[in-house]
């Protein structure tokens, strides 16, 4: 009986330690997001073929959206809505900036991305690059992206991408301030961008 009690107390201690560690990690992660620029350093390519890094996300408040050009609904809808919100909040285009980062760099070359984005907005800049570098950046920015085959029997055939559909909002120092969800009430989205200008 005494041995069983010792084993139970040891198990309780292990569980308590694990929970404590998880709590610490979650808190540290939130503090890290709040303390410095969001994401990780990166070197990718803009839609014009010019090098672009995380430094582009500083100097002005920034809206980031991760998507892909073969996206049937979410991406074109979000880009169209984001462009409208930007024009309403910042008519001159001098106070806010926005970027569309491809989660499908295998198909979305900078040129393809540029044609796609420019058909919707002159205020949003596309970003792509080498697939391995793009995926490193996506992971570092805590964005979910996964290739989904259209036919499970042909895993190497045509595919779509499942991905985070929120717009990320960063202040002028590149710090994370919040998101605009897909399908967000337009008035709420505009208010969030107005608040972003005050950061």
UniProtKB/TrEMBL annotation:
Domain Thioredoxin residues, every copy: 33-198
GO MF, one annotated term: metal ion binding
Residue positions binding Cu cation: 71, 75, 163
PROSITE patterns: THIOREDOXIN_2
Keyword line: Copper, Disulfide bond, Metal-binding
SUPFAM superfamilies membership: Thioredoxin-like
Any Pfam family hit: SCO1-SenC
Keyword Phosphoprotein found: no
InterPro entries noted in UniProt: SCO1/SenC, Thioredoxin-like_sf, Thioredoxin_domain
S-S bonds: 71-75
Record family assignment: Belongs to the SCO1/2 family.
Protein name per its UniProtKB record: Protein SCO1/2
Lineage of origin: Bacteria, Pseudomonadati, Pseudomonadota, Alphaproteobacteria, Hyphomicrobiales
